[in-house]
Write a structure and sequence with these properties.
The chain contains 9 helices and no strands.
């Protein structure tokens, strides 16, 4: 093994994401990242200027997984569904970075390239530029909301906590055991309602 490990952008991003996945956003520091890579912290600054810049690079790499190819055939509904599902999957793989992504796309090339495709496809399909912006924003709200928390896992498995005081929630204690399935199906329900509602508005 070389005494001074060779650094490149890809290796730095991968190590940073590993720390975020393991320790959370607050757990990432340039000092900890350097230790993870087996180098001095000063060595990192030749590749990335600040921690914030590094986070944008990590976020950009994750967002490369978002698929906007569904818009290519001219079906905006299919494009939105494909985009939303792949977006949620990309964030679900790295939930600790979701709060950082919630700040918006302004500094991330991957976000802006995908947003440009979505916006252009919606306008080409007949939506106004304002409507296209609102639809893209609504899609982000839907996906980030689904990625930020699990509705089902937020309940206690203690049956006694709900049964007497909240009679309409007498089965709520079962939700944590089916959280993955219910959260997936709830996201799909919201996505279907979103796209169907837009379709009705387009015909109105």
């Amino acid at each position: 093994m070389p005494r001074n490990p060779v650094l490149d952008a890809s290796r730095i991003r991968a190590a940073a994401l590993h720390i975020i996945d393991r320790d959370g956003l607050a757990g990432l520091s340039m000092r900890k990242l350097a230790a993870e890579l087996g180098v001095r912290a000063a060595s990192l600054y030749g590749h990335v200027a600040t921690k914030d810049d590094l986070l944008h690079e990590v976020a950009g790499a994750i967002l490369e997984e978002v698929d906007v190819g569904g818009f290519a055939g001219g079906d905006w509904r299919h494009g939105l569904v494909t985009c939303a599902r792949s977006y949620r999957a990309a964030l679900a793989a790295h939930p600790n970075i979701v709060p950082f992504l919630a700040y918006g796309p302004a500094h991330r090339e991957a976000s802006l390239r995908r947003l440009d495709v979505v916006h252009g496809a919606l306008v080409a399909a007949g939506w106004t530029r304002r409507e296209a912006t609102m639809i893209a924003a609504s899609l982000v709200y839907l996906v980030l909301g689904a990625a930020l928390s699990s509705f089902s896992r937020g309940f206690s498995a203690d049956r006694a906590r709900y049964g007497d005081r909240y009679p309409n929630l007498d089965k709520a204690h079962l939700l944590p055991s089916v959280a993955a399935e219910l959260d997936h199906d709830s996201f799909e329900l919201a996505l279907d309602a979103f796209v169907t509602g837009l379709g009705q508005r387009a015909r109105g």
